[in-house]
Amino acid sequence: MSYFDAASAAPLHPVARQALLAALDDGWADPSRLYREGRKARMLLDAAREAAAEAVGCRADELTFTSSGTRAVHTGVAGALAGRRRTGRHLIVSAVEHSSVLHSAELLEAEGGAVTRVPVLRTGAVDAGSYEAALRPGTALACLQSANHEVGTVQPVAEVAEVCRAAGVPLLVDAAQSLGWERVAGDWSLLTASAHKWGGPSGVGLLVVRKGVRFAAQGASDERESGRAAGFENLPAIVAAAASLRAVRSEAERESVRLRELTARIRARVAESVPDVEVVGDAERRLPGIVTFSCLYVDGETLLHELDREGFSVSSGSSCTSSTLTPSHVLKAMGVLSEGNVRVSLPAGAAEADVDRFLEVLPGAVAGVREKLGAPVPVAAVQAAVQEDVLVVDALGKRCPIPVIELAKVIGTVPVGGRVRVLSDDEAARLDIPAWCEMRGQRYEGEQAAERGTAYLVRRLT
Amino acid sequence: MSYFDAASAAPLHPVARQALLAALDDGWADPSRLYREGRKARMLLDAAREAAAEAVGCRADELTFTSSGTRAVHTGVAGALAGRRRTGRHLIVSAVEHSSVLHSAELLEAEGGAVTRVPVLRTGAVDAGSYEAALRPGTALACLQSANHEVGTVQPVAEVAEVCRAAGVPLLVDAAQSLGWERVAGDWSLLTASAHKWGGPSGVGLLVVRKGVRFAAQGASDERESGRAAGFENLPAIVAAAASLRAVRSEAERESVRLRELTARIRARVAESVPDVEVVGDAERRLPGIVTFSCLYVDGETLLHELDREGFSVSSGSSCTSSTLTPSHVLKAMGVLSEGNVRVSLPAGAAEADVDRFLEVLPGAVAGVREKLGAPVPVAAVQAAVQEDVLVVDALGKRCPIPVIELAKVIGTVPVGGRVRVLSDDEAARLDIPAWCEMRGQRYEGEQAAERGTAYLVRRLT
């Protein structure tokens, strides 16, 4: 098996495993107790905090261990908003943040606050100017990921931190995807991360709140972790998290070069060997191990199953692989194709031979899925009829990628300059039809409400 | 070393360790993913939930894994209160609940809700009638521990559940101290527990919400754990928690008999071999492994250090061992002596020989501390002066157990029927002077505000 989904969870680093085992013996007692076992636990906790703080580049007393990266974000956002409640209740986030940040933003809206979602370029990156424009007198907090978890694009954190600093607004950086590689540059105010993304155990997140940042922890609390993470410390896992962060950092320089070459190879080879594919994300400013592409006329779930059968574990932002039947909010915000989406995220140590085998297998897997989906739908069977000067394709009730497949099948049957109107009630079509037009050099002319679903208008240009 | 503080945290059960190691290899991936590693993780998570639900006696879909017992309580109380917001904002708790419950109650008060703290008998037990009397039309929730964490007294949960059920009020049971021994009896509505109390790993709590109980999770959430515990599941630890719960349950019947005999031995022998000691808690309705006693004229912290030097790890509810300089709220609510307090909580498997050695060492350790504290304070040096018919002892600025020691030194110098007035600004004196009177057969006549601190009035009867 080749596990290529490190952006979801990385397998445990050997150093983490070793540290965890040692700490299970020495670090199970309550670190607030005065007896021998408690003092030993306290020493381990203090040492882990020092090590993690050193890796982050902060003071040990600015760093709290939480029970997950998600919990770190929820606590960090809520605490920072409450700490600046008097300033106002306006929050700025990018449109491509992790769901934990977006859920925090939705909670603020539900409680009467306001949220600005900063749009991104087609690469997935925000522009510091957009953050500057979003700042207003009542802005309590801004959030920006260090790098995107779905497409790997690195964000201009230092620049955004600067515009926030100039306006006196704290910036919370979700560093979940990048902290294992390097410190976050720039003058940020809060930082969150998650150990199981860098090869540490699950059950440990980091929340860093810089001295001087107003912060009021919300909900019930206790005396542990400066009142920011209630409950008995998950000490063996914390020890393992800190030890593995040091370990992956010591390997990061060499390993990042190696993975970057492998993902560059995937970017290039997929574009060559798979027809009708869009490789997404920034080609240069990106994380070493993540590469994402979308394949026209492909059902993401079926493709994932095919790849799983071939021994490759990858994830997808396609609507058909989510329980909500909506495509990934990241791909949506970028305006890129979501159908047949595949994210490859290589764990540290991923073997070159496995990557090469993936590149061998992929074109056939994509072709196989396309054949299954496309072949049994002869052009004649497409529900299309010319109404006035418009060819209408009725794709109602059909799920991604069928509406785009049907559009592609009929576009050649209208004259250049003619129009196709695709009726669809699939949420993914709203993203994928414009993306298809962009890829195919056709003109997308917008959507209209229809009797059922939505009508998407496409003019044939080529 | 003999670790006798299982009520804080139990060392990892061998089964937990084994399950954890296995799950580190098989259960690190995201259980929501469709590929092989994800499916394996999902199977482990489902099996752990089934096993834990079986041990609790609930349906698997009623059980949520949280990141700690404290988190389970915070989430459970907040969710249950919000779910019955329309009914009212009144909460009932016992005065001897774990701090996680009391912190939740304080949060409700800070937000404008009302809390009734049900008093306890001198044994530490509540009376079901007191809960019944506390119920009112706006009561949203009642909380009661299954057994007390400081003195081991078992609470009448089934009776309290019945009076709550009759009033249509859900009862949340904090079963942290007892779930490893047995299911919680009675018709409760919510239940919480903590794995590291039964020999599971830290980082895992349980929250059970019975079907039909109104519940609205508070704060930001995600799609994991029915929206009740956001963030990546701490799967290896969850697997270890469930496996060890099964394991300790299979040993519980035999082990509880054995530990109960050992703690009964401690109860009897301490009362015989240590002068001026009060063994607290219910002698019959109690947990198998916990026994707690308080020693007059002893500084708890010094005694803990002495015992630690002898190789015994125990905890204390004395004020001098807490960072806030206030005695344990449990001892306070029971009205028993808090000075020189020692809690012995035996882990499963505790050796009889270690208990016997503890009983050998204890009298000398107590005597040593008393000598250090008492010997250097000759009667002549006590700041006492007869004013009218009252002997005034000035213990201002002196910490527990000095005020009680000075009272004890002078009581013989006033005639029977005469009075002593102890001036003290130590919070523990409020509890310990009445407790001393109770133990010594003297009459406590109440307190008065003094120019500095508080004056405690004692009449000599014997």
Q: Would you mind describing this structure in some detail?
A:
2 copies of one chain form a homodimer. Chain A is an alpha/beta fold. The first copy, chain A, folds into 3 domains: 242 residues, 3-Layer(aba) Sandwich (Aspartate Aminotransferase, domain 2); 123 residues, Aspartate Aminotransferase, domain 1, CATH 3.90.1150.10; 81 residues, TusA-like domain (Translation Initiation Factor IF3). The first copy, chain A, contains 12 helices and 17 strands. In chain A, the strands form 4 sheets. A 7-stranded mixed sheet of chain A has the order 2-8-7-6-5-3-4, sandwiched between helices. In chain A, strand 5, helix 6 and strand 6 form a beta-alpha-beta unit. In chain A, helix 1 runs antiparallel to helix 7, helix 2 packs parallel to helix 7 and helix 5 packs parallel to helix 6. The first copy, chain A, is globular and about 85 Å long. At the A-B interface, helix 1, helix 2, helix 3, helix 4 and helix 7 of A face helix 1, helix 2, helix 3, helix 4 and helix 7 of B.
Number of strands of chain A: 17
Helix content of chain A: 25-40%
Strand content of chain A: 15-25%
Biggest chain-to-chain interface with counts: A-B, 67 and 67 residues
The CATH H-level homologous superfamily of the largest domain in chain A = Type I PLP-dependent aspartate aminotransferase-like (Major domain)
Query: What is the mean predicted local confidence, pLDDT of chain A?
Result: 93
